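Consider the tokenized backbone below.
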């Protein structure tokens, strides 16, 4: 079984300088690729000069995470894809237990390792932590991270367990599954496209697994910081995209509830004087309404499966009850 580590890059030379050496040192089992999204810095030249053994795939445009990987992976033939953010530090033997899971359990389609915070290595990192789930209203959350509350890593998640979604920061998937699912939905551009893909996998009875014996450290926000209103726009919009396409049950009720809860989020932004984020939520909803006909067409050809969510409301538990533990 062959594995390809594919790093998507856009003007990230400094990140490549910082994190590529560890990838090269600790990934003997893998072939390494850098998929460049039409960078205007010297990223490609840097790789050619310093890591000639790396295969460079040069995309013709910056199509974001979704299109960038869709285009690049057409040129990658290994059995397993590891989609690795350029701001991730890998560790020794990080691939060993991942490959073992794929080899021994053919029903496993997607895997995520433990993701800790590069800037505070004792804690889990926002984007994925110890594996993702969905609450009853379609809000994503993680073991080890609920909204902005991060747990300390006390080895409480050094397990192997089924999860609902795996983080795009370090995302392993069988090539055959990626192709059968049609890859990422390029209308997302960036953020939550991996949740959409995992949801489509779940709806086809494919398994996503968390492996806590493999650890990576993620900087997070290296391309788009959490304080950037554009990230709020993409997160709110793409979350609505995802549930419209994939959620089973009464879609009208779910969408209506989400619109109300997103309105409450805007009020919270108002109290914290984050006026640009209020505008981002409004723009996200307008974009959602504009794209709704296309989303419903996609929904019509996809299978929706019950039992996707945990019965609790993570919003209620976190903001009203004050329950922070995932």
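A designed sequence for it:
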């Amino acid at each position: 079984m062959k594995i390809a580590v594919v790093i998507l890059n856009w003007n990230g030379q400094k990140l490549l300088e910082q994190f590529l050496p560890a990838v090269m040192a600790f990934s003997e089992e893998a072939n390494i690729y850098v998929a460049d999204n039409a960078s205007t810095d010297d990223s490609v030249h840097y790789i050619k000069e310093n890591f000639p053994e790396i295969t460079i795939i040069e995309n013709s445009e910056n199509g974001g995470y979704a299109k960038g990987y869709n285009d690049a992976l057409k040129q990658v033939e290994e059995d397993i894809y590891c989609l690795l953010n350029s701001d991730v530090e890998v560790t020794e033997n990080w691939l060993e237990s991942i490959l073992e899971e794929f080899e021994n359990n053919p029903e496993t389609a997607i895997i995520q390792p433990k993701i800790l915070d590069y800037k505070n290595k004792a804690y889990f990192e926002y984007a994925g932590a110890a594996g993702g789930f969905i609450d009853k209203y379609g809000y994503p959350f993680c073991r080890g991270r609920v909204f902005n509350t991060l747990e300390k890593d006390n080895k409480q998640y050094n397990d192997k367990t089924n999860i609902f979604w795996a983080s795009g920061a370090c995302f392993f998937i069988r090539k055959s599954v990626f192709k059968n699912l049609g890859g990422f939905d390029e209308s997302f551009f960036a953020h939550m496209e991996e949740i959409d893909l995992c949801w489509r996998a779940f709806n086809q009875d494919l398994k996503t697994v968390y492996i806590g014996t493999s650890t990576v450290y993620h900087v997070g926000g290296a391309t788009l910081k959490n304080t950037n209103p554009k990230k709020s726009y993409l997160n709110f919009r793409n979350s609505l995209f995802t549930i419209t396409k994939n959620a089973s049950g009464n879609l009208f009720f779910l969408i209506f509830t989400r619109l109300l809860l997103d309105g409450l989020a805007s009020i919270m932004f108002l109290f914290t004087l984050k006026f640009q984020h209020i505008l981002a939520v409004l723009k996200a909803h307008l974009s959602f309404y504009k794209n709704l006909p296309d989303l419903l067409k996609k929904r019509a050809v996809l299978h929706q499966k019950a039992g996707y969510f945990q019965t609790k409301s993570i919003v209620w538990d976190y903001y009203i009850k004050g329950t922070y533990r995932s």
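The chain has a mean pLDDT of 94.
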